[in-house]
Fold:
Amino acid sequence: MKLFVDNLTNVDFSYLHPHRGLMGESWLVQLELDGSLNEQGMICDFGIVKKEVKRWFDRWVDHALVVPTGMPRLSHATNDGYTEVEWLYPDGESFYCRSPESAICLVGMPDITEHTLADWCRDKLLELFPEEVKGLKISFVPERIDGAFYHYSHGLQKHDGNCQRIAHGHRSKIEIYINDQRDSELEAEWAESFKDIYIGSESHLVERCESRHHYAYTAPQGDFAISLPASVCYLIDTDSTVELIADHLAHQIKKDHPNERVLVRAFEGVGKGAIVEL
Structure:
């Protein structure tokens, strides 16, 4: 007998890919529990399942930087409540991040996929459930997107919650309308520009050279720093909330369409985002 919960929650996070580097991701979480019935005729109460599993994902994966410790050219260390990660891209460029320990999830896998991360999470989550639960299956499902989308990472210094973490991200679709007509070519152009991008704020940029960007700030959870190639950074002069990203995109598009009505629907992960019309 099994208990299932479809779309229990979704996780927005970033991870290191062995070729593409820092990638923002958004996955829906599906859950199945194997077990026997208790005296109430249940394997486990739905309320407990939803609450405990969501709390666990919020703590370990959601809005974190997930690092597969078995990937090549990677080193990491945790001291005094902080974790440092260094990694070399295949072309020799380097990535560095230092964050409070809770903001970086170290996973003993060679890479991060829907399947490897699900296996790691399953083993950890099984400990949460009562003895009636004999087995657990976790599935991560990317949102089905018919149009253009992009992977981006960022950090929101002023946020009270986990969005303040300097390397978390999303897989997001984008919709652009010119005079109420959707423009798929513009959507594809911006999705390509934002592919695997780190959206940085000028106020967080502490050092910049032709080939590298260094960002750092202090937030309620602690001190954060990240350094990565300039080629994977997109710098804006505001914070990188989805509202301000949508506003930035709308104004950039408006420059090329000064006499037309421009509307941008920028998503932040699954089923949420911001709309700006000029």
